[in-house]
Amino acid sequence: MSLPIALDTNLLARLVTNDDPQQALQVADLIDASAACFVPITVVLELEWVLRGAYKLAPPAVIQAFEGLMDITQLHLEQEDLVRQALELHRHGLDFADALHLLRSEGCATFKSFDRSLEQLAAALGIQPAVQRP
Q1: What was the pLDDT predicted at 2?
Q2: Rounded-to-integer distance, Cα 96 and Cα 34, Å
Q3: pLDDT for 109
Q4: What is the pTM of this model?
Q5: If one looks up domain 5-78 in CATH, what number appears?
Q6: Sequence spans of domains, the chain
């Protein structure tokens, strides 16, 4: 059994946006030829930031992009269940990174932040741990 190959943000950005069709095809071929591809959670976080910031994609388009990636049989996102939960919270208005931060803080008493809108939205969504200002 061969080891999986890990993919960087720039490969997935090319695949999702097709902004460079030749590179997008190269990435698609790489994934198709691989038994397994691994996407670290750090790449997931960076990809969302790149799609939102550099490519100016709206949250529904970002969510659709991730759902499309997760449909690829050979592609395995680290903590995929957590990513799915974060996407669902993002669908309800929470920033994707904030959703990951909160979900990864499960088991903590509180999540301290100066972000008042995060505090209010997390409370409205009933997310634990509760977000509180220091």
Answers
A1: 83
A2: 29
A3: 97
A4: 0.92
A5: 3.40.50.1010
A6: 5-78
